[in-house]
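Q: Can I see a sequence and its folded structure?
A: Here is a first one.
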Amino acid sequence: MKRQRMTQTARVEQLLRRRGELGITAADFLLPDVADGGPPILRLAARVDELRSRHGVTIVTLFEHKGDARVARYVLREQHFVTASMPVNAPDASDQLLAPPPRSAVLGWEEA
């Protein structure tokens, strides 16, 4: 049975996750030393764009200067979601929507 190869996009995402804050550059996917041992990827920016737009991955682009050239370094930013729960005895938000407006200390709520 023939083993299915990873797509270029999957290879880029895998290396981004493995490298962490170090990130990746186009040079990481060029011959002779392709970072993941696979065939070269010549359009890294296109693969990064695909990860961002189609897969919702957050990737930051940092620009570095190497001599006269400007090199893009891509770094994965993990999204961390915080789940909060309301205490059992907390008032329901819908109750607050139906409550009368707060009273004014000077005028009272009718005139406020």
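Q: Show me another, different protein.
A: A second, unrelated one:
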Amino acid sequence: MKRFLLLALVLVAALAVTGCGLVATGETAGEKAGEIAQFTLPAGFTPEFGMDVADTLMVGYNHTDGRSHIFLMQVPASSGLTQAQLEQSFSDAMARAQGDQAVETVETEETQVTIGGETVTASIGTGTSSSDNTAYRVLTVPFTGIGGPAVLVYQRPEADWNQAEVDEFLASFE
């Protein structure tokens, strides 16, 4: 079962990035997010895609700057995946799907955050986009979604990082 879900995660990420017809956009993508968690997006972010493959949900948001992104993914509780396995699978799948657009974090640190009333260990890292050498910060937050283990990835150019905005976003999760 775990092997199937890992394959599904890769498929979900690949479909999201390639813009396959199985991917919902706009408001429909936002509706998919509501199946993972209830939250308020930071200003400037709009739904880009949302999908449900083998009960694995993934949604993505883009910022008006064209360089900032928010991703959420949730697997069913019956998947047996741990939060660590979900985070690693998501990270690997996105790196493969994004290709030369990927941001590989090289310096990471762990920090405690509260999301949806749950205190979790998040990781925050810095990295550089392989396509244009822009410095980025990437926050990865595991949490319990409405239907199972979930992960949030918040990625912004380091020059645009606003910790107060991030804190407000995390606090908006119900």
